[in-house]
Amino acid sequence: MDNAGIYCSLMEDMPALQLYNELKSLLQTANREMAALEARILFEDIAKISMKSLHLDKDITISREVTERLEKIAFRRCEGEPLGRILGYRDFWKDRFYLSPDTLEPRPDTETLIESVLESYSKSFPPLKILDLGTGTGCILLSLLREFGDARGVGIDISKGAVLMARQNSERLGLADRAGFLQGNWTDRLEKDRKFDLIVSNPPYIPSADIPNLQKEVRNHDPILALDGGNDGLTPYKNLLPTLKNHLEPQGRIFFEFGINQEEDIKRLAEDSGATLIRVTNDLGGIPRVVEISYGDK
Q1: Which helix (H) or strand (E) holds 162?
Q2: I want to staple 197 with a disulfide (CB 3.0 to 4.6 A). Which of 107, 127, 153, 161 is the partner?
Q3: Which helix H or strand E contains 97, and what residues bound it?
């Protein structure tokens, strides 16, 4: 069935299961591998129908109003707009984080950073003071505060819009009393003697020349400021590593996310700054993604 036929069928009243299958077929033109997942997300979010109910009750029907809304969303998705941007949120770790044009969409690869932190602290005292640099939606900091119930944290972002959205997410999640957000360039807004047990960051790490070659979903919808890591993609690490030791408690840890083929460069920059490499953690695809370092003993 061509797209025009699918659009037409979406406008008609039909059983929910048939509509779901039509929607999934249409979404395959946007992302074949994720079509079933995206169709499920749309059905559960827009039509308020779970997959279990959909398959158990073949008589469920969808109202024309909801059908038309699903059609419009599917059309936008097939035009290349990311589903998270259309819905205005992205689920990450255990919570839902709302987006703005100033924030990246949280991605599954970044959950590797959360997992790496939790594994590191599973055999030691949990951190009580957390710093998140380039906080965006606040997803990293707020997810860690969810896991470490006695901790408090600060998120910093150069974008005013990102800071406002992170604050809103902290309020929605009931974490505003433990999370503060500042607009600033990395650590410039921090007092010189302010220290943290844990510092985390998912900084921009895409080389400038690679930006035009990114997928259009990323290139056209994510803020370039949050993607562009300079000529070699390493500018944020070069700026941060020499200064972060001044904000880290003696037994503190730093966790950085980094990009493909950057592992050796990150290790070298860390060692040049006097840091001790603890370990590198791979993401779900087996790609080195997160580095853990300290400025004390292992």
Answers
A1: helix 160-172
A2: 127
A3: strand 95-98
pTM of the model: 0.90
Nearest C-alpha neighbor of 253 from the set 192, 195, 199: 199
134: phi then psi, degrees, rounded to nearest 5: 75, 50
The owner of tokens 């998705």 is 77
Strand 89-92 and strand 152-157: the pairing is unpaired
A 10 A CB-CB count for 163 gives: 22
**3-class DSSP state for residue 144?**
helix
Q: Are 80 and 220 in contact (CB under 8 A)?
A: yes
Give the separation between CA 228 and CA 39, rounded to whole angstroms. Answer: 31
Residue 273 token pair: 């700054």
Provide the pLDDT confidence category of residue 124 given band limits of 50, 70 and 90. Answer: confident
H/E element, 16: helix 16-27
Strand-pair category, 89-92 with 95-98: antiparallel
Where residue 253 falls among pLDDT bands split at 50, 70, 90?
A: very high
- Placement of tokens 């807004």 in the chain: 189
**Interval 140-154: pLDDT, tens:** 999 999 999 999 999
Query: Is 33 within 8 Å of 94 (Cβ atoms)?
Result: no
Contact 104, 90 (CB under 8 A): no
- From the list 203, 297, 196, the residue with the least C-alpha distance to 254 is 196
Instruction: Kindly state the tokens that stand for 55.
Output: 């398959």
Find out whether 23 and 39 touch, Cβ atoms under 8 Å.
yes
Which of 6-20, 108-122, 253-267 bottoms out in mean pLDDT, i.e. has the lowest? 6-20
Average pLDDT taken over every residue of the chain: 91
Whether the pLDDT of residue 5 is over 70: the answer is: no
Closest CA to 54 of 32, 76, 39: 39
Q: In terms of DSSP H, where are the helices of 28-156?
A: 35-42, 51-56, 64-78, 83-87, 111-120, 139-147
